[in-house]
Design brief:
There is one protein chain. With 124 residues, this protein is mainly alpha-helical. Helices cover 61% and strands 0% of the residues. The longest helix has 31 residues, at 13-43. The chain is elongated and about 55 Å long. The chain starts with 12 loop residues before the first helix and ends in a 16-residue tail after the last helix.
Amino acid sequence: ILRPGYKDFITGKKSRILLIALYLNFEMKNLKCHQILREIKIFNRGRKDIPKDGGFDTVSCANYLWEFMAWVMLCILCFHWSIVLFTICGFIQMREWALKKHNYYLKTFKNYPKSRYAFIPFLI
């Protein structure tokens, strides 16, 4: 996308602004999730606990969800094969990590909400 002959996939100014705003929103949500996880670690002196808020009420790994959604926005914005490939690889890896963490939470915490998904709400 940094080559001289590159043509934008999304040409409308309002569409580009919307996609960039969504991208930034998802990255800020990802940052908030990392802050939540950090606070749990500090407050519990390194012990794990059930995360809440920031998307964690729906999925076990909200930080992965928001990161994936940010990359989807870049895919739509640029639609270059390299970004799409990176997003697919990232999805596969984050899905694996999310399933492991979700299963860990289910085994470790007896009161862990059974209604939470691992990674993508209503799918995974």
